[in-house]
Amino acid sequence: MSIRIAMALTATIGAGLLMSTAAEARPEMVGAHPGDYSPGTIVVKTNERKLYLILDNGHAVRYPVGVGKSGKQWAGTTRIDGKYRNPAWSPPAEVKRDKPQLPDVIPGGSPRNPMGVAAMTLAGGEYAIHGTNVPGSVGGFVSYGCIRMLNDDITDLYSRVSVGTTVVVAR
User: What are the tens digits of pLDDT across the range 106-124?
Assistant: First the structure.
């Protein structure tokens, strides 16, 4: 490869990295008007692609998230029913039907595991709030209904909440 081609390639990759709009792990303290939400509640606003942890009557921690793609979105109230570090992942039937080449189980810690470094399962379904092995997907409509977070952000949220925490998903 010539020096000129290598330099052009380097410049192109560098420009692409500078122009990237991928979400960055940075939980933000924001003002909040929780309304009907009590402190400790997780509120996911899918149209904003943001997750809020209500701290008190005027403050919340906000995180960027990836949410359900078209036809896979849902709204409602549930609770965290499990917390797991480096969880193994078994594709739900719907995912397996769409992607039959997936293995039945991807071990925790594998770079191919879409759950990332931690997951909190939600009661009443096959959904979770979890990390990701594709950080560029955070901020988009990308999942089968799960709430996808950057690994640093799920680690932070995981440390702040417990099993039984109320989760409200609103559009």
Answer: 999 999 999 999 999 999 8
